[in-house]
Amino acid sequence: MKNYLELHFNIPKKTCVECGCVIEEQHESYLYECERCIGKHER
Fold it and tell me: Quick one: pLDDT band at residue 26, thresholds 50, 70, 90?
């Protein structure tokens, strides 16, 4: 179990491909954009 947690925490943070900000939310989906940039597309 410990090894699993270590692997999980060693995953590099995703950064948004649009604006470059770090994506805090680790969603099930593999989106590479932050909430703000996703919101721009939906408008």
Answer: low
